[in-house]
């Protein structure tokens, strides 16, 4: 039985990856940090199938212990401070968690299980102010946020450990990927949740930022398969993972709101607090290398993805409100 260690297993990608690996017959070790209120929402269906280990990205000893106990064949380092907008008010925490912690994880693997295959969650945010379109593995980086800068560090230290210590270390340069498990502060989930709430009459407006930003959005369930495929190759390498299609935040609003029969223009309020000090205007990925070498292709279209998210949000918001009504006896 193969063994995998996943950091960030309670997050969006970690939960899909854990399900995928369990289905493949892996023993899955999930590392989670201590929080005052544990959140297993994304993994509740598989919680008992995961071997839980306690650890924090910033604590090398805990990472070494996680690797020592699990003795993994594969390590997926997905944990990070992953919200770009939070990286301006928390630049140092982001630097510790998203940049330096990658060295912690690589050191833990190098010292405790150097033959483990290692996956690093790199990001299209590294391209930032883009130098060529579409972006591919050879496109130069020009990050536009403390988060993007931190990811560039994580990316290059992974390449460096591969070249210095001959480790099987891969970096996946993943473009935005979403799902019904996406955190609520990210724009796709914020919009699909708002479309559901407004449709159900429990929210009146949606306060939002830059409508012109363009992103290459895919489905998280497709993208975690690419992570696994990278670690099944004979040689470690870096790959861009994307759909090759670009949409604006305006397109996202149009698709989500029209799915519930509403016109988004009647509900949005432009709010400067959601504008960023430096914006990434457009991201569009060229994933030809992953298609050719990994045989990977994205399966869910942008429209299918947004419909899936709105439908799940409608179900969840309805269920939440049924619960409150039963509790209070008041119809919301
Ligand atoms: P999420 O924000 O959903 O998940 C992040 C995970 O990291 C959570 O499980 C979180 O735990 C954990 N974590 C955060 N800080 C620490 C810490 N100090 N110690 C231990 N665990 C910690 O992110 P996604 O699943 O969306 O993304 C996964 C990775 O991929 C991230 O590194 C992200 O930056 C990167 N990425 C994501 C893309 C996307 O579009 N989703 C695109 C490109 C890269 P907790 O539940 O306790 O908060
Ligand atoms: P991003 O995702 O920054 O690309 O990072 P996010 O969904 O936060 O923003 C996408 C674009 O939408 C614009 N936008 C808004 N964003 C948010 N969050 N809230 C708003 O109200 C809003 N209005 C407009 C943003 O300005 C931006 O242009 C995600 C994360 O998952 C990273 O971890 C990952 O590395 C990258 O994708 C690739």
Automatic annotation (TrEMBL):
Known EC number: 4.2.1.47
Cofactor names: NADP(+)
UniProt xrefs under Pfam families: GDP_Man_Dehyd (PF16363)
Residue sites binding NADP(+) per the record: 118
Keyword Nucleus: no
UniProt keyword annotation of Lyase present: yes
InterPro entries: GDP_Man_deHydtase (IPR006368), NAD(P)-bd_dom (IPR016040), NAD(P)-bd_dom_sf (IPR036291)
GO biological process, one term: 'de novo' GDP-L-fucose biosynthetic process
Catalytic activity entry: GDP-alpha-D-mannose = GDP-4-dehydro-alpha-D-rhamnose + H2O
Keywords: Lyase, NADP
Molecular-function GO terms, alphabetical: GDP-mannose 4,6-dehydratase activity; NADP+ binding
Residue ranges annotated for the NAD(P)-binding domain, each copy included: 5-309
Enzyme class: lyase
Protein role: Catalyzes the conversion of GDP-D-mannose to GDP-4-dehydro-6-deoxy-D-mannose.
UniProt similarity note: Belongs to the NAD(P)-dependent epimerase/dehydratase family. GDP-mannose 4,6-dehydratase subfamily.
Annotated protein name in UniProt: GDP-mannose 4,6-dehydratase
Organism, scientific name: Paenibacillus pini JCM 16418
Biological classification of the source: Bacteria, Bacillati, Bacillota, Bacilli, Bacillales
């Amino acid at each position: 039985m193969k063994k995998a260690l996943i950091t960030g297993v309670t997050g969006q990608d970690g939960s899909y990856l854990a399900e995928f690996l369990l289905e493949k017959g892996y023993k899955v070790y999930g590392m989670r940090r201590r929080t005052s209120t544990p959140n297993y929402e994304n993994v509740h269906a598989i919680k008992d199938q995961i071997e839980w280990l306690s650890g924090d990205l910033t604590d090398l000893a805990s990472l070494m212990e996680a690797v020592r106990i699990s003795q993994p064949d594969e390590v997926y380092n997905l944990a990070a401070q992953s919200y770009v907008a939070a990286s301006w008010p928390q630049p140092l925490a982001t630097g510790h968690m998203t940049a330096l912690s990658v060295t912690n994880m690589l050191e833990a693997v190098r010292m405790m299980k150097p033959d483990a295959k290692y996956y690093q969650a790199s990001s299209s945010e590294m391209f930032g102010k883009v130098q060529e379109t579409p972006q591919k593995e050879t496109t130069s980086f020009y990050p536009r946020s403390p988060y993007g800068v931190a990811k560039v560090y994580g990316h290059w230290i992974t390449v460096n450990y591969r070249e210095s210590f001959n480790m099987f270390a891969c970096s996946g340069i993943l473009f935005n990927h979403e799902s019904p498990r996406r955190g609520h502060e990210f724009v796709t989930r914020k919009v699909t949740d708002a479309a559901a709430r407004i449709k159900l009459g429990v929210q009146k407006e949606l306060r939002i930022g830059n409508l012109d930003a363009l992103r290459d959005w895919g489905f998280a369930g497709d993208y975690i398969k690419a992570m696994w495929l990278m670690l099944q190759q004979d040689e470690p390498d870096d790959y861009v993972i994307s759909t090759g299609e670009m949409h604006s935040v305006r397109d996202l609003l149009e698709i989500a709101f029209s799915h519930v029969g509403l016109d988004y223009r009647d509900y949005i309020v432009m709010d400067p607090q959601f504008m960023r000090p430096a914006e990434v205007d457009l991201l569009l990925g060229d994933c030809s290398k992953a298609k050719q070498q990994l045989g990977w292709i994205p399966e869910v279209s942008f429209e299918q993805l947004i419909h899936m998210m709105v439908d799940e949000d409608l179900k969840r918001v309805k269920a939440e409100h049924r619960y409150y009504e039963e509790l209070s006896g008041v119809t919301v």
